[in-house]
Amino acid sequence: PVSFIRIINAYNSSKKIDVYGNGRIFTRSLGQKKFTPYMIIQSRQYRINVYRSGKMSNPAADTIYAFEPDMIYTIAVIGDNKGEIIIIRDTKPSIEKGKSGIRAANLCQDAPMVDMITHDGKYIFNGILYKDTTDYISIAPSKYSFKIKPSGSDVSIYTIPIRDIRQDWNYTFYIVKPLSVLMLIDGNTYIKKAKQEAKS
């Protein structure tokens, strides 16, 4: 059995990182605010080690995690001097027919609680805590611009440029440091579909 993973470098360091699972390289020289494509791994428990690129001592972060068969994950490396790894499950959401799924993950240590709103002030997500990921919500496919603001404030601190949200696609907005947002298409949009087509 296999699992699917991608890795995001939200670690607040100008250094690139290497990520290993059970001593095997997952990705090398991953730059800040960069991410990998999804990769296939054997479903089992892994010790995940993050090193500054080219180093194999004093890991910046490490954890142990058991990846389940046929599940899709995002591994996020976060933090400042002391790194940390959080594992986000890219579970298939229940989205209204004809709509799209979006969620947000707060990986920015400088933004302990934030809201995500549309350009005209409609609240999409409230009170996203650092290291938390919201549930997916259904949204009509269209072009959107979003803003990030501290919870309880009316002043936005980051504007996400206009993005095209496509029908039946699922997205995660990763809030990272220095403050910016990565909008990624989630593997639950296409991985299972590709597997079914390969079998047919």
Q: How are the secondary structure elements laid out?
A:
Blueprint: E1 2-9, E2 17-21, E3 24-30, E4 39-42, E5 45-52, E6 61-66, E7 72-79, E8 83-89, E9 100-106, E10 113-118, E11 123-129, E12 137-139, E13 142-150, E14 158-165, E15 170-176, E16 180-185, H1 191-199
Parallel strand pairs: 1-7, 9-15
Antiparallel strand pairs: 1-4, 2-3, 2-5, 5-6, 7-8, 9-12, 10-11, 10-13, 13-14, 15-16
Walk me through the structure.
The structure is a single chain. The chain is mostly beta strands and 200 residues long. The chain folds into two domains: 2-89, Immunoglobulin-like; 100-185, Immunoglobulin-like. The protein has one helix and 16 strands. It has one helix at residues 191-199, and strands at residues 2-9, 17-21, 24-30, 39-42, 45-52, 61-66, 72-79, 83-89, 100-106, 113-118, 123-129, 137-139, 142-150, 158-165, 170-176, 180-185. It is globular and about 50 Å long. The model is unreliable at 196-200 (pLDDT under 50).
